[in-house]
């Protein structure tokens, strides 16, 4: 029996050893990642441009542009592949999701090729080996020496980074605070919400050299070489593409292009950013933010109103099985949308639906906010319809009007008059809620303010500007809505 079992096991192992190479060869043969990019003619690079000198925003020829050593590397990679480079900006902790869902083709954002990340994406050879510092307020330089000096204090780092994980694992009696943006962390540091910010040495040096109120100290984190190095990330299985890009990375390292050319070029942009840091100098960025904020708001209100009417009518449907099912579906939709955060809905539409349909960030933002608004508008409309006296409906029907005509010409106009203040409030709320789409890289007002903060290293001034701009927009909208409300009441 043992001999038979041993023979059977040997046969299974032999078959397995035969099939695996064939499967591997088939997978390699099926890998067309390089051919696909070259055929498309465009290489989409995802990055989080708040990490100087790796990637950051600078004003070039009057236009805000993503620059830095990682951008230079991206251009070199695209040139060697014979394609154009397209840069897509988003928060750092959204990059891996964007890569896996096909929103971007590669990540170059000072990303460390840690073992955990290697399970989900494919990395090239390392293009830069660095280390970590902790940025502190200069007035605290005598108080803090390294990570062990922050007992009882709070250390911050960019969410999803290796230094953020290091704070949690390698410090004792120290609180960790994660934020999506480096500029937010520096602002929190200067407003004494944080005692220190851990970041890579080149970034720390960039912030300190451009802000006399800051200083950098050694972190003394115990990190592996993977955790202190940077590599380019591609989707898992992109073997041919990774192998091709590795040749470019090897050339960059051989010719020492990072230290020789890319870092000095980034330094020039950093100096240019601090020549004129007045908010008036960045009026175009704020104007663009206002434009996109209003586009998102107006479109979302329009589509949200249409969705709201359909949902309200569906929720009030009575009669046969079909109408009952429609009512239950509408009720489930409204309750689900109202019971989940809008930020999650935005990310689901952009990344989740992105697995099937490659929607632009602006379109995804409008769809998500419209769907969200529709659920709330449905309840406003349903309440407005219920507020119309039943006698109005009975009178209309007695005159021979159909159900549809009664609803269109009698009930809905009166309902709209009753719910106008609520609809106006929804419009004003959407002006402010549109800021959520900045997480997927839509260049609305919050996104543009982050650009200005990254450009100027000024944390408070851009926030004050956008507060004033939001107030102007909401106040103006409120006055216009009140005017029409008075007209309706007069009629």
What do these coordinates show?
The protein is α/β, with parallel strands linked by helices and about 500 residues long. It folds into 3 domains: about 30-130 and about 230-275, Periplasmic binding protein-like II (D-Maltodextrin-Binding Protein, domain 2), CATH 3.40.190; about 130-220, D-Maltodextrin-Binding Protein, domain 2 (3-Layer(aba) Sandwich); about 280-490, MetI-like fold, CATH 1.10.3720.10. It is built from 18 helices and 13 strands. It has helices spanning about 1-30, 35-40, 70-80, 95-100, 115-120, 160-170, 180-190, 200-210, 240-255, 255-275, 285-315, 320-340, 340-350, 360-385, 390-400, 405-435, 445-455, 460-490, and strands at about 40-45, 50, 55-60, 65, 85-90, 105, 120-130, 130-135, 155-160, 175-180, 195-200, 215-220, 230-235. α16 (about 405-435) packs antiparallel against α18 (about 460-490) and α17 packs antiparallel against α18. The longest helix is centred in the middle third of the chain and has 33 residues, at about 285-315. Mean pLDDT is about 85; it is low at about 1-30. This is ABC transporter permease subunit. Pfam families: BPD_transp_1, SBP_bac_3.
CATH top level assignment of the largest domain: Mainly Alpha
Mean pLDDT figure:
86
Unreliable spans are 1-29
- Structural class, by secondary structure, is alpha/beta
Question: How many domains?
Answer: 3
* Secondary-structure arrangement, i.e. CATH architecture of the largest domain: Orthogonal Bundle
Helix content: 55-70%
Number of helices: 18
Which band does the percent of strand residues land in? 5-15%
- Main sheet attributes: strand count, strand direction, barrel closure: 5 strands, mixed
Radius of gyration: 28 Å
Specify the CATH homologous superfamily of the largest domain.
MetI-like
State the distance separating the first and last CA atoms.
96 Å
């Amino acid at each position: 029996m043992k001999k038979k079992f041993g023979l059977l096991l040997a046969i299974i192992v032999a078959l397995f050893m035969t099939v695996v190479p064939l499967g591997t060869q088939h997978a390699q043969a099926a890998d067309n990642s390089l051919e696909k990019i070259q055929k498309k003619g465009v290489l989409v690079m995802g990055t989080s441009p708040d990490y100087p000198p790796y990637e950051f925003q600078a004003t070039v020829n009057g236009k805000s542009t993503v620059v830095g050593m990682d951008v230079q590397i991206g251009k070199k990679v695209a040139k060697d592949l014979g394609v154009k480079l397209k840069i897509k900006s988003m928060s750092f902790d959204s990059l891996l999701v964007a890569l896996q869902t096909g929103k971007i083709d590669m990540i170059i954002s000072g990303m460390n090729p840690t073992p955990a990340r290697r399970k989900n994406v494919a990395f090239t050879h390392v293009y830069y080996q660095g280390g970590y510092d902790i940025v502190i307020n200069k007035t605290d330089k005598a108080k803090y020496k390294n990570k062990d000096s922050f007992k009882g204090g709070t250390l911050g780092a960019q969410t999803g980074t290796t230094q953020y994980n290091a704070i949690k694992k390698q410090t004792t009696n120290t609180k960790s605070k994660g934020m999506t943006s480096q500029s937010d962390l520096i602002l929190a540091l200067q407003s004494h919400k944080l005692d220190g910010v851990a970041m890579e040495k080149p970034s720390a040096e960039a912030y300190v050299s451009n802000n006399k109120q800051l200083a950098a100290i050694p972190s003394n984190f115990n990190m592996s070489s993977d955790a202190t190095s940077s590599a380019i990330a591609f989707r898992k299985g992109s073997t041919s593409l990774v192998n091709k890009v590795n040749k470019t990375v090897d050339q960059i390292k051989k010719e020492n292009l990072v230290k020789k050319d890319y870092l000095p070029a980034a330094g020039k942009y950093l100096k240019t950013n601090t020549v004129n840091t007045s908010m008036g100098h960045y009026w175009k960025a704020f104007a663009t933010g206002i434009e996109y904020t209003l586009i998102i708001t107006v479109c979302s209100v329009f589509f949200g109103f249409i969705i709201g009417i359909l949902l309200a009518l569906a929720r009030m449907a009575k009669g046969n099985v079909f109408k009952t099912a429609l009512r239950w579906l509408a009720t489930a939709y409204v309750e689900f949308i109202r019971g989940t955060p809008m930020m999650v809905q935005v990310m689901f539409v952009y990344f989740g639906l992105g697995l099937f349909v490659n929607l632009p960030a602006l379109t995804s933002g409008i769809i998500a906010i419209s769907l969200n608004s529709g659920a709330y508008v449905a309840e406003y409309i349903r309440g407005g319809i219920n507020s119309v006296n039943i006698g109005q409906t009975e009178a209309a029907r007695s005159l021979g009007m159909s159900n549809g005509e009664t609803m269109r010409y009698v009930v809905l106009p009166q309902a709209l008059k009753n719910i106008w203040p609520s609809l106006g409030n929804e419009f004003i709320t959407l002006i402010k809620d549109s800021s959520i789409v900045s997480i997927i890289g839509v260049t609305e007002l919050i996104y543009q303010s982050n650009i200005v903060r990254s450009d100027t290293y000024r944390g408070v001034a851009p926030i004050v500007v956008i507060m004033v701009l939001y107030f102007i927009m909401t106040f103006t909208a409120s006055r216009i809505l009140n005017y029409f409300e008075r007209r309706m009441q007069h009629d």
